[in-house]
Amino acid sequence: MAGAPAGPSLDRVIRRRPHLWWLLVPYLLFVIALPFVNRVPLFVLWLFGATLLTPVAVGLARRGDRS
């Protein structure tokens, strides 16, 4: 079939593997920080916390993927 996706749809993948939502946490932490770059005095602390939470979120996604 022309134009048919080669693999399962994203909707089906997320329904079968909801733990993958954890992978959005780091992205959202960094994107939410963008409007506050010059306004928040503790911006570096926010980025440091987001950087530390990134491996935790990836680990939770991996842990759910193993089961």
Could you describe the 3D structure shown?
The chain has helices at residues 10-16, 24-33, 43-66. With 67 residues, the chain is mostly helical. 0% of the residues are buried. It contains three helices and no strands. The chain is elongated, with a radius of gyration of 17 Å. The mean pLDDT is 79.
In which range does the helix fraction lie?
Answer: 55-70%
Question: DSSP helix count?
Answer: 3
* Sheet with the most strands, sense and barrel status: none
Mean pLDDT: 79
State the shape.
Answer: elongated
Strand proportion, as a percent range, falls in: under 5%
| Strand elements, count | 0
- Rounded to an integer in angstroms, the radius of gyration calculated over CA atoms is 17 Å
- The ordered H/E elements are HHH
Q: Report the structural category.
A: mainly alpha
First-to-last CA distance: 34 Å
**Uncertain stretches of 5 or more adjacent residues:** none
Which features does this protein show?
3 helices, mainly alpha, 61% helix, 67 residues
Topology (elements, then pairings):
Blueprint: H1 10-16, H2 24-33, H3 43-66
Helix pairs in contact: 2-3
Short description:
By secondary structure, the chain is an all-alpha fold. The chain has three helices and no strands.
